[in-house]
Amino acid sequence: xxxxxxxxxxxxxxxxxAFAERLFGSALATAETMSVYLGDRLGWYRCMVESGPLTSxxxxxxxxxxxxxxxxxxxxxxxxxxxxxxxxxxxxxxxxPPGVAEVLTDTSSLSYLGALPRMFAASARHLPxxxxxxxxxxxxxxxxxxxxxxxxxxxxxxxxxxxRLAPALAGVDHLHARLxxxxxxxxxxxxxxxxxxxxxxxxxxEATFVGLDVDDASVQMARAHAATAEVSERVRFLVAxxxxxxxxxxxxxxxxxxxxxxxxxxxxxxxxxxxxxxxxASLIVMDEAVSDEFTGPxxxxxxxxxxxxxxxxxPDSMSSPPSAATGTVFRPSTLKQYxxxxxxxxxxxxxxxxxxxxxxxxxxx
Length: 365
Fold this sequence. Notes:
With 365 residues, the protein is α/β, with parallel strands linked by helices. It folds into 2 domains: 2-105, Winged helix-like DNA-binding domain superfamily/Winged helix DNA-binding domain (Arc Repressor Mutant, subunit A, Orthogonal Bundle); 124-364, Vaccinia Virus protein VP39 (Rossmann fold). Helix content is 51%, strand content 12%.
């Protein structure tokens, strides 16, 4: 029995040696994640994709960065097995393998994760404030977390919205029919960078859309994206809280993509959206597909969501009291309770599967 427990260092009964090994591995993963952040933000990965194998001096020259730091980073990337090195060349040259390049630089790929370290970088910058919040309450807002957090979420979700949202919704017959009606008016609550709204606008060209978000920087970013996508005539992005939805309705459908768990007062927002819906319309909530209940040791999805919750989403929600303090581990039972409290008739899980880390719910009136 002891040997069986020791082989699972994520369990409370692990031996000191096993847990020490696990923690050392976590430190290695942290260093790797931080190094990926550097390669992403300094443009080193993208430069290697565009230019092919490079020496450290050439990489520094192309990216206008420091050559000594570039060499140390390149060697570390090879030590971790991310990049390849040709040691027969003098000086050595470094290259990025195609699979690694896709994950770290191809923002249209469903495998793209290059922006992922930005979320943790955003919270690391505010660890003193987070420590104070953990001691005394309060939090750190999405606005304070800044561009790293904002762009991370937007960039990671965009390929899924661009490539999979339209087919996913087309597979839900009653919803697709409502969205396809000529003149349909649709809300996107908490739209972030606007990629969800733009994907909806492309899928349903006879509809008009209103996006509501409290973060002014996100609104500006979304408006720029809508102009680039040439959908600005049918899409409006406004700085507004979700509880202002009824002022911009009525809506034939509404969406809330990966935002409800961040809201300090989600029931109030849900109730306002319900009041803004036309008869028979529904609200579609996309949120994390975490397990149904807490069971102690969890799968990797729950683990990463607890990480996001502790460092980003829960502090964001608690920065605006009074707060429901939902957190990223947003279980179905919690959403169903919020929906009941907001006056919805029911909550159903839609038959949309294999959509990144997410589950789709329909809140009916």
